[in-house]
């Protein structure tokens, strides 16, 4: 039988889709190229923005039309499934199963029912306890996501995640380390520890207090670095970092191990204290800038990226300018930039002072323009430098060229054989085309 998974949203969803793929494969299912060939279609959804939800509803309507031509099973998974639950079945009659982010353990039972051609009533089923998704290294890939926390307890005033994914749960470090070892055995060269806010990871394995069995995020980083020694894994990343929880110890551990990529995604969201407070971010711009100084002091070669949310209720021109000023001071390598859209069910939904659409769009355009300039300047300044890269595989344009990535996740295209995929190599960044570097030749790293 054939399956298709469509994934929307963040890397947590990418990791969860990979876990679903693993379950399909273990049961002997084949991946379909399109929905036309699939016996089961899973749409793994995102609720963070209204636009993401509208796009999914559009896709569901297309599947509804397809289902009129031939039968198949349609499963909606992810944050929309958690947020809207069975109401999704009313909104789209073609939906057979709604599987929220905490219900993944029901998935094998749903598949079993599909295989037997029997209905399965998820509402009647006793819901198994939440368990972390086992990570899954796709064939021909060398990067692996390993979830370390699930959910979030921060309640930023604009965000639905704490409501749809629930409170933060930290994963047993033994399970994390076992996943890392498994990924290494399967040929992973790079891992990313994932969570909504990885820095607040805390495993209470002991009897509380300062019990040695308890483990915080820096402690987990140390264990992860030790676990990849003598394995093919050479790079470790982690995502996302919340400025209020990134500790000096975590920075020191990162700086002390070259295995941690010299790039950090540190969500700023805004540059004005007034707006940060209204967003319930629980740090100030001064604290953010202090943290950036500390990170750069410990790792001078590091680059930073961020998320920026423009047009939050009450944002005045001066607040917006503080954001531009923060960007000038930090100079991010790249940023995910959005304008605020009200999300029902979040505290910000009822805040006064909504910013008009036109003003939001204009301010967002200003932020994007500034970021483009910073990205270009930073990339240009690196032409001529010697870099270590991980070879991903053939480039999209030519079979004689390879697509590689630096530890800052920048793409570099270089001539080379496809058999080098998965190798670490060094090269010189010769030129820049758009946001992609070009190199003339690569040399394999010792041991690769
Ligand atoms: S930290 Fe804030 S923005 Fe990020 S998931 Fe949690 S509540 Fe949402």
Name the hetero compounds present.
Answer: iron/sulfur cluster
What is the CA-based Rg, rounded? 23 Å
Question: What is the name of the CATH topology of the domain at 140-261?
Answer: Transcription Regulator spoIIAA
Kindly, what is the distance between the CA atoms of the first and last residues, rounded to a whole number of angstroms? 38 Å
State the secondary-structure class: alpha/beta
Describe this structure in words.
This protein is an alpha/beta fold. Among the domains are: 2-116, Rossmann fold (3-Layer(aba) Sandwich); 140-261, Transcription Regulator spoIIAA; 386-444, OB fold (Dihydrolipoamide Acetyltransferase, E2P), CATH 2.40.50. Helix content is 34%, strand content 22%. It has a 7-stranded mixed β-sheet, with no helix packed on it. A 5-stranded parallel β-sheet has the order 2-1-3-4-5, with helices on both faces. A 3-stranded parallel β-sheet has the order 6-9-12, sandwiched between helices. Strand 14 (303-310), helix 12 (317-330) and strand 15 form a beta-alpha-beta unit. It starts with a strand and ends with a strand. The structure holds iron/sulfur cluster.
């Amino acid at each position: 039988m054939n399956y298709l998974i469509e994934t929307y949203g963040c890397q947590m969803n990418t990791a969860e889709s990979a876990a679903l793929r693993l379950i399909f494969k273990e049961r002997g299912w084949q991946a379909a190229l399109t929905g036309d060939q699939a016996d089961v279609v899973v749409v793994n959804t995102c609720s963070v923005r209204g636009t993401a939800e509208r796009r999914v509803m559009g896709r569901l309507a297309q599947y509804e039309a397809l289902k009129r031509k031939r039968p198949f099973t349609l499963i909606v998974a992810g944050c929309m499934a958690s947020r809207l639950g069975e109401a999704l079945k009313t909104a789209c009659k073609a939906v057979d199963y709604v599987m929220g982010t905490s219900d993944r353990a029901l998935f094998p039972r749903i598949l079993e029912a599909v295989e037997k051609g029997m209905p399965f009533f998820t509402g009647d089923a006793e819901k198994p306890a939440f368990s972390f998704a086992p990570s899954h290294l796709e064939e021909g890939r060398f990067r692996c996501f390993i979830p370390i926390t699930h959910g979030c307890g921060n309640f930023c005033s604009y965000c639905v995640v704490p409501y749809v994914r629930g409170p933060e749960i930290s994963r047993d470090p033994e399970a994390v380390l076992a996943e890392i070892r498994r990924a290494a055995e399967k040929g992973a060269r790079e891992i990313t520890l994932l969570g909504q806010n990885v820095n607040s990871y805390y495993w209470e394995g002991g009897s509380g207090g300062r019990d040695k069995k308890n483990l915080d995020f820096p402690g987990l980083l140390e264990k992860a670095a030790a676990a990849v020694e003598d394995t093919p894994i050479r790079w470790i990343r982690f995502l996302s970092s919340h400025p209020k929880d990134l500790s000096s110890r975590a920075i020191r551990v990162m700086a002390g191990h070259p295995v941690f990529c010299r790039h950090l995604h540190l969500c700023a969201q805004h540059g004005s204290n007034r707006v940060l407070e209204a967003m319930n971010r629980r740090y100030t711009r001064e604290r953010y800038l202090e943290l950036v100084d500390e990170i750069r002091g410990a790792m001078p070669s590091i680059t930073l990226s961020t998320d920026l949310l423009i047009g939050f209720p009450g944002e005045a021109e001066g607040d917006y300018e503080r954001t531009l000023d923060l960007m000038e001071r930090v100079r991010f390598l790249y940023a995910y930039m959005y304008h605020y859209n009200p999300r029902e069910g979040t505290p910000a939904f009822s805040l006064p002072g909504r910013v008009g659409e036109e003003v939001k769009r204009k301010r967002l355009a200003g932020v994007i323009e500034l970021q483009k300039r910073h990205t270009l300047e930073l990339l240009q300044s690196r032409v001529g430098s010697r870099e270590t890269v991980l070879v991903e595989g053939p480039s999209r344009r030519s079979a004689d060229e390879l697509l590689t990535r630096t530890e800052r996740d920048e793409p570099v295209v270089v001539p080379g054989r496809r058999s080098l995929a998965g190798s670490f190599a060094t090269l010189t960044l010769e030129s820049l085309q758009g946001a992609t570097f070009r190199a003339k030749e690569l040399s394999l790293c010792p041991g690769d």
